[in-house]
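Hi! If you just cloned this repository, the fastest way to understand the data is to look at a raw example. We've pasted two of them here, unedited. The first protein comes first, obviously.
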Amino acid sequence: MNDASRNPPDKILVRAAIERADGLRRERRFQEAVDVLVDFLKAGIEIAEIHYRLGNIRVDEGRLEAAEACYKKSLAVDPYHENAMHNLSVVYKRQGQIGRFVRTYKRSRRVAHGRLRASGAASSWTKALSGGRGRALMLVVGIAGTFLLVWAFTR
């Protein structure tokens, strides 16, 4: 468990740092922007948005391999970070890795439309119900459903 999960950082402080880094990036002061964001990582604050922003800086610098690593780290922290996934697909395309580009781009579109997150939620819901209480609840729901079907067809 990292420090960020035990003691969430002040969201205002993180947002201000990200905005500062974005401003430095727009001014093409890449190393300063990186330093602002890396300070959070050094403090043990693992936020997908920080890795995503670092990836954007690396793309601007033309360092596609470094950008790829940053976007992958962002997705390791938040597998549903739509922008990181999309930008990773763009990096693959620029690198000529067309197969990876297509797979990653399609996945980013599914995330954008909520299909991946919903299926993940459904599978965690079914896992939660697979325990002892869950089995009892599923049995009750099944019996109630059967009763409703019988009742509907015998009226």
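Ok, and the second one:
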Amino acid sequence: MLDTTEIHREILSLMPNIRRTVAKVLRSSRYYTDDHIEECMGDIVLQIFDYGVRTFDAAKGSAKSHFTTFAKQRALNWLHVAHRRFEAVPAHQDSDDETTPVQLTDDAPDAFASLVRAREAAQIRAAIAALDARERDLLAAFERTRSWGKAAAEIGVSPATASRMKASIAAQLR
């Protein structure tokens, strides 16, 4: 059994991994900046040193897996709460660009949802436009038939070819 001082040292050595995990979770939403990551990390560090230390059991697993999982769960919760409060959520920008926040109020939940849908729809349209013609045909056939096998037959390709095309489509749409 590790004593509290050893656990604290272990946590401090894991902070770069924990920060990367938190950043990955928040950036997956595409609407959060480094400021949000730092705010979330501040909350998580306090929770790790309080609750996380009390729940750690070396017999059940490594400190790295425990505290990284703990941080990931807390980051997801933080993200969920932030969306529910309809905070000012900045648009995702490359690091060279300035980030302009989008101001939302508590009485505008539909505005937030519309903003997210519009951005995602534009990204999806751009990704679909980047597909080659056969892949777009397969995707359109799948939309009509709701079956990859039927879509493959409709455009005249083998199921194996359709499977490879499906994997290519999925990779390009990520």
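That's it. A detail worth noticing about the second one: Residues 4-27 form the longest helix (24 residues).
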